[in-house]
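Structure ticket #2291
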Amino acid sequence: MLHDGAAAPRPRGDLRRVVAASSIGNALEWFDYAAYGLLATTLAKVFFPDELPAAALLSTLAVFGVAFIARPISAFVFGRIADRHGRKPVLVLTVLLMSVATLAIAVLPGYDVIGVAAPVLLLVIRLLQGVAVGAEWGSAAAFLTESVPEAARGRLTSVLGSTAALGPLVASTLIASLAALSSDAFMLEWGWRVPFLVGGAIGLAGLALRIGVPESPAFAADQADAARSAGAGIARRDRAERARRALLLAALAAYWAVIYYVVLTYVPTYVQAHGRLDQSEALFASSAGLVVLVVAIPVAGRLSDRWGRRRLAIVSAAVSALATVPLAVLLSGASFWPVVAALMVWNVSLAINGAIAPALASGLFPPRVRTTWIATTYATSVAVFGGTTPYVSEWLVQATGDPTAFAWWLVLFSAVGLIAGVLVPRRELTADPGAGTRQPAG
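Resolution: structure written out below.
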């Protein structure tokens, strides 16, 4: 009986399909959000009046942040469904909704065609994407963690982190290539639509994959255990322990979200608006950093199986806290290669976060409530702190007149992540408190 949420052995081919199906929705999520962020200066001209360019850019970033409002509610609702009826149905629904919404952005008319309806419709579509994304990561993390062998859990679940980097890498490379090979007029008229068309196609491929995979074996086993123990209740101390772990995950997720959106969304915009790089150079610099990220995440995943997720969480936050201000100073007025170097350093911390997050988060909660707690906690932190980070970062720079002011926002949350990492339990919770085994977390 699988009391601990561990996965039953799967044939190698089935395991590959499970990993691919779990991660492709995550790839679409980050592809789309990266595309929106990287195209922010173009989208500001398409969907908002161009009388005040700075205000239009802030409005575009505000729509980026507002879309996160739907995520916590969606995470709770769909997390409950995933814990009661299975991870697979939720994963199918989220990728379908995300695909349709992404394609809708690709064909949406601009402000010069339909006026104020353009930004309103853009906001509605982004809210629908927020609904889809709210349950995506938590459901995928639970499903994948429960479906892979324990000894390789860090290595295999790190694929979720790799796709979170691969999505932006593909988006960044595609947009940079479009910008380099075409005119500004083409990008403003049609070029910006291409990445969203590509994103919709990725989502439809993910839908086909997810329909064909079996349900998490740990979910099925835990459902049987829950039926036998119905009415037993949960001790007050166990509820308190779950709440404490949720606070730790919220703090870690806040740090994960802030550094992600600073480095991969805000910095490419920053070096165009306040630095010396044009759009093509900024996006190629971002792509170079993402190559490092994609390569480093599997390495960090393997290390987490040997050294533990907790230790690596501490290392990531410490590197970010110490390096961010010097890197921000380097960015100010920097040419192409110093920007690439700064992004590569930040991506060391990002790689660690991407590798450890699914297994660390899943290890904090028992299977029967795992998706609800992970999805709701993660989505809330990302909505409150990640979604607002590009806007807050730009506001700090404009309000203070200091081009490095955004760095202190990241330093603050790096400190939060460091404290939370120290407080993470040294043993992963893989069953209901007091009822099962615990695995090393570092």
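Closing remark: The radius of gyration is 21 Å.
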